[in-house]
Amino acid sequence: MTQAALLVHPCGDRALSLRVAANGPAPAEDKIIALAQSLREEPLDGVVETVPTCDALLVIYDPKTVPFAHVRAGLEDRFADLPDQALIGRMWDIPVVYGGDVGVDLDALAHAKRMSRDALISLHASATYSVYMAGGAPGFAYLGGLPEVLHTPRLAVPRPRVDAGAVGIGGRQAAVTSAAGPSGWRYIGQTPVCLLDQTRDDPILMRAGDRVRFYAVSAADGRQMARTKFAPKPRLLSAP
Questions:
Q1: Which domain CATH number covers 47?
Q2: pTM of the entire predicted model
Q3: Does residue 102 contact residue 166 with C-beta atoms inside 8 Å?
């Protein structure tokens, strides 16, 4: 059973925000995601939607169906019943063309970190990232697990447009853009994988709780993958 404490805060008259003060073996983010997965698989009466974020879970409920106290008690009971290793997710292996027209910050970032371009690419691709949340734009995946030496503040002035699939660094997190638009992140490459595709049964590729590994591919291979609409197949993972 979990040893972490669940912190519950009301949000208006139809939602709760849940945070975890973890003191067990699983990180607080994993506890939040595990609770969201449990609620998705076995919804509580009156719960309409759950929205996991980097450090909290928003639970929206119907106050005409269930009162606040009932939802709170149900969430606390569900959380208390979660095993310490409850998280189940998927592993995505994502190809990246490092540098190029989209990875405009790669060389400057390598220079700032006092490492070679190849060393930075190798370090970035060596990590296993956790999808903390999808948001900001539909399907935009916020990734934890960025090696500390690569932590870099966002740009003071955002760029007006960054292409979809751009692989970036912002503060302590990594990310992959799902749609073209303005951004202040530092971008080091681009993936040919489409994170948001309205023709798929599930338009959003990654969801909270998934894991991500990046691997380098050549520009020619990246173009070929884009032409053939390369779609990686995830591996199902569970915590040991």
A1: 3.30.1360.40
A2: 0.80
A3: yes
